[in-house]
């Protein structure tokens, strides 16, 4: 509401500083009222000056002829419009920040790109202290999928496995992964029975945080020829990224 007072300068200061909206000041000049809208600013002499709201003269309405109530409503409308625009900008900013945060904490994902019986292109064999049935790991430089299938013949010399792609990893650095293979119970020459083994991996990611690689298994000894379900999994920490199931069958 328009606040009107007559001649008290101290009251003018109190009202202008306490009001959350521009103050409308009414002073009688003959029979015509003059109005000023704005925050009160005392000058060096103690007199009051105001940040007056400039109204367009194109409307054909004289500034002195407008009532205090009309000018008050116009000022409040402008304040509300500014607040609405600020709220909209803040909402857009928060949306952008939240989207960036979500992207920053996105978890790695993986997918199988090919699978089946593998043809080894180049290889070298190193004997390591692994928990695999054969007790060694064949480090293969390159493979081709000779036949895409989930049915694997239990014959010596057969290699099978998966080609996979992982995304959402840290870029340009070695990534610690883990291959887990599960299978029907196997008894090795030392009499140890097992149904799974785990192999630690370290693969370099590219500048997009992506890894494209392959993992497999080769039957090198007769005791490994265990018919049934064989499963390959690739893990990153506590997260399983890919999984593929094969069925090993008697030829």
Detailed description of the structure:
- The chain is α+β, with helices and mostly antiparallel strands.
- The protein folds into 2 domains: 96 residues, no CATH class; 141 residues, Immunoglobulin-like, CATH 2.60.40.2390.
- 16% of the residues are buried.
- The N terminus is likely disordered.
Map the helices and strands.
Elements: H1 9-18, E1 23-29, E2 32-38, E3 40-42, E4 48-50, H2 68-104, E5 109-126, E6 137-147, E7 151-153, E8 159-167, E9 174-187, E10 193-204, E11 211-218, E12 228-236, E13 239-249
Parallel strand pairs: 7-13
Antiparallel strand pairs: 1-2, 3-4, 5-6, 5-8, 8-11, 9-10, 9-12, 12-13
> What fraction of residues sit in β-strands?
over 45%
Indicate the CATH class of the largest domain: Mainly Beta
Biggest sheet strand order reads: 7-13-12-9-10
> How many β-strand runs?
13
Largest sheet geometry: 5 strands, mixed
| Helical residue percent band | 10-25%
Q: Looking at CATH, which topology of the largest domain would you report?
A: Immunoglobulin-like
User: Roughly how many Å apart are the termini?
Assistant: 94 Å
**CATH architecture heading of the largest domain:** Sandwich
Stretches where pLDDT falls below 50 for ≥5 residues?
Answer: 1-8, 20-66
In one word, what is the shape? elongated
Which structural class fits the helix and strand makeup? alpha+beta
H/E element order: HEEEEHEEEEEEEEE
Number of structural domains? 2
Average pLDDT score: 75
Q: Over the alpha carbons, how many angstroms does the gyration radius reach?
A: 40 Å
